[in-house]
Specification:
CATH superfamily of one domain: NAD(P)-binding Rossmann-like Domain
CATH class of one domain: Alpha Beta
Helix content: 25-40%
Largest sheet: 7 strands, parallel
Order of helices and strands: EHEHEEHEEHEEHEHEHHHEHH
Strand content: 15-25%
Distance between the termini: 37 Å
Structural class: alpha/beta
Length: 299
């Protein structure tokens, strides 16, 4: 297959490049820094502008994962503008460009997040659930998905990938938590009762590849593991995987003071079930949090 990938230098994108390159697929990464792509994306080709592909042979698929990190810094007005530009505006540009192609790809898999649902509290949420309590993160995801869905009118199958926290040995949330937990400084966040959906990087990559080839799938897909855990359960599992105690909780008031509205990412959650992935027959390699964390962090 000939695949155009955005966000190829990120955690998920670089893992996809490794898989697809090893299988002989042709991967082209659209990047603001094309000179960095070959080293970070397993030798994938790079473009800085979509127009560079106008005279090239047709694409089979587009996977759109681009987006500035959402949890790197507080959601100031300028940071919100960056997050909107890197997700909503970029996706709009991508779909507008797809409309100009004489031969369009069969499928667009476009990134989103389980934050689309907002704060779901204890409600079990699947792809048929309505949005819950909104915040900036959920509004951002809905605008992002709206732009991607415009490709459906072009005759392109559109999959909206609502991704949970990704467990990986080389980045993501565990890279930030590993040191404090190894030092015995970890603990639950706030009450610890908020639900915390998650997925192993192997299953994130496997699910995207599965959806790429599953012609009958379109619309939203929850990219998360079947096991639903609360933050306190995740905290215990992480401490157990690292053979360390976890007895220093972080009070909600401190997180709200330091992070502002971005603290919602840590103090609120979604009890999300991957109903459609299971119905479609995707087989999880890591369905339980203990085995996932041990695989990522080592015995």
């Amino acid at each position: 297959m000939r695949i155009l990938l955005t966000g190829g230098t990120g955690l998920i994108g670089s893992a996809l490049c490794r898989k697809w390159s090893s299988e002989g697929h042709e991967v082209i990464v659209w990047s603001r820094q094309p000179s960095t792509v070959a080293a970070l994306c397993s030798g994938a080709d790079a473009i800085g502008q979509l127009q560079e592909l106008h005279d090239a042979k047709p694409l089979d698929a587009v996977v759109n994962l681009a987006g500035a990190p959402i949890a790197d810094r507080p959601w100031t007005q300028s940071r919100r503008a960056v997050l909107l530009e890197s997700r909503v505006n970029l996706t709009r540009t991508l779909v507008d460009w797809l409309a100009t192609l004489p031969q369009r790809p069969r499928v667009l898999i476009s990134g989103s997040a389980v934050g689309w649902y907002g704060n779901g509290q204890d409600a079990i949420l699947d792809e048929d659930s309505a949005p819950q309590k909104p915040d900036f993160g959920s509004t951002l995801c809905r605008s992002w998905e709206h732009e991607a869905m415009r490709a459906q009118s072009l005759g392109i199958r559109v999959v909206l990938l609502r991704t949970a926290a990704v467990f990986s040995p080389v980045g993501g949330m565990l890279a930030r938590l590993r040191l404090p937990f190894r030092l015995g400084l970890g603990g639950r966040l706030g009450s610890g009762q908020q639900w915390m959906p998650w997925i192993h990087i192997t299953d994130q990559v496997g699910l995207i590849d599965f959806l790429l080839h599953h012609e009958g799938c379109e619309g939203p897909i929850n990219a998360c593991a079947p096991q639903m855990v609360r933050n306190v359960e995740f905290t215990v599992a992480l401490a157990r995987a690292l053979h360390r105690p976890a007895f220093l909780p972080m009070p909600s008031a401190v997180l709200k003071l330091v992070l502002g509205e971005m603290s919602n990412l840590l103090l609120e959650g979604q009890r999300v079930r991957p109903s459609r992935a299971l119905e479609l027959g995707y087989q999880y390699r890591f369905a339980q949090i203990d085995t996932a964390l041990v695989d990522v962090l080592g015995p």
